Amino acid sequence: MGRYADILLPVAVPQPFTYAVPAAWGGDAVRRGMWVRVPLGKRKVCVGLVWQVHDHVPRSAPKELIEVLGPGATPEQLRLWEWMAGYYMCTPGEVMKAAVPGEVRLGEFRPARELHVRLTTLYTKGEQITQFLEQNKRAQAQSRALLTYLSLIPTDAQGEPAVGLNDREQLWVVRAAMTETVPASAILKLVERGVLEQQELIPLDAGNNPRPEYPIAQRDALEGITQPVVLVQGGTQEQLAELYADQAARAARGGGKQTLVLLPDTVGRAATVHALCATFAARCVVYHSRLSDHARSRIYHRLITDPGSVDVVVGTRAALFLPYDRLGLIAVEDEQNGNYRQGDPAPRYQGRDVAVMLGQLHGAKTLLSSPTPSLESWSNAQSGKYGSLPLDIHPSTPPKVTVLERGKGLISKYLHRRIEQTLEAGRQVVLFQNRPP
User: Fold this and answer.
1) What would the pLDDT profile of 204-251 be if each residue is shown by its tens digit?
2) Which residues, listed in sequence order, are joined to residue 389 by a DSSP beta bridge?
3) Relative to the CA of 413, which of 38, 56, 192, 436 has its CA 20 to 30 Å away?
4) 243 and 345 share one domain
5) Domain hosting residue 271, numbered range
6) Closest by Cα among 305, 271, 302 to 287
C-alpha cells in the first residue's frame, strides 16, 4: 500500500495538498514537520511542510514529492498553528507564512561559512610546538600567530593548550578571531609550512559550550504558586529583569529548559535585553521583526537543528513562532500593551493569549507582568485561575507639585522668580506648553 503526505503550503487555502511518497524512499523518509519540495501546477515547484503522513488513498492520482529538505517545525509548533487557525479564523498556511522566515520557508537558507584553522597532525605534542618556536625566533609574526592560536584552543588539566586532543574537531579556530591581533600573512605562512591547515566551515555557535552554573537567588519568588499562569503586578524594569533572569537560570539549571521573554518592543526595554544577554551571553538570542530575513532565518535554523545551544530567547511577538524544543518558562512584560496585537495580514492574533496557549502546549510556566494589568488578566487573578505575585516598588520621594494661577501675563511672577533662581544656580529649565485648542 502506498503512503501519502499532506503538505502545508503558505497559501490561504483551508486544506493542505496531498502528494504521494515515492516508494523508493522507505517508510521513515518523510515525517510530520519536515520541509519538502513539491510540484505545484504544470511547471511551478514549491517548498512545503509535511502536515501529516497517512495511507488514505485520495480520489485523484496525486503527484509525487520531489525532495526532502530536512526538519522544519516541532510538534508543539504544529499544534499551535492548528489552534491559531481555528481560534483566529484563518488557514494553517497563513499562520505558517507569518511564523517562518522567508529564507527558511522557501528553502533558500544556507548557513554562512568562515575560514577555520587548526594544527596539522605533524604537531600533536607540546614538545614539537616548542621546538618550532625555538627554531623560528626570528619569524616573530609567525610565532605570535601560533601563540595566538594556542590561546584560543581548549586547555588540559594543567592549563596548557590541549594540542593532542583525540577529537581534533575541537582544535578548529575561526581565522577572523586571530586576524584581530596578528596579520593574515603570518597565518598563511604557517599553513604553507604545514604547521596549520585551513578550511571553510560553518562556525559553531558559542552556545555549544557547556552550560555554565548560572547564579540564582536564595529564595524562589514563585515558591508556593501552583497555577501555570502567574500575574506579576508592579515592580520596576530592573526588578522584572532580575526576576526573569533568576527564573530562566532555574529553568536551565533544573532541567535544561528554555525561556522565552516577550517584550512589547526591544528599544524601550533595552535594559531588560542587556541584562539577560549579560547573564546568558551566547546562549541568549534576540529575535524581532526588525532583523533582516537572513538573521531571523539563522536563529530559526539554530533552534531547529541545535536547540541545546539556546537557553533564553528575548523578542517581540514574532518570537512566539520559533521552534522551541524544551520550553519551560514564558514571560510577557506589560501584558496589556497593544503591541502584542497583530492586525493585517492574517493571522490577526493577541500575542499574550498565544503565549498562554504556547505555555500550555509545552507545560511551561507563564508570567504576565504589568503595573496596570488588563481587565481579563486581573479578573483571572482575582478568581484564582491565575496565580498572583505582587512586586513592591522601591519607595522614592515624590516631586513637589504647585498649582499656580497664570494671571494676565504669559508667565506668573512666582514662576519668573524661580526661573531666575534656577538659571543663577547654573541649572537648566524646561517649560512645557499645552497645545492650543
Assistant:
1) 654 455 677 888 888 888 888 999 999 999 888 889 999 999 999 999
2) 232
3) 436
4) yes
5) 229-391
6) 302
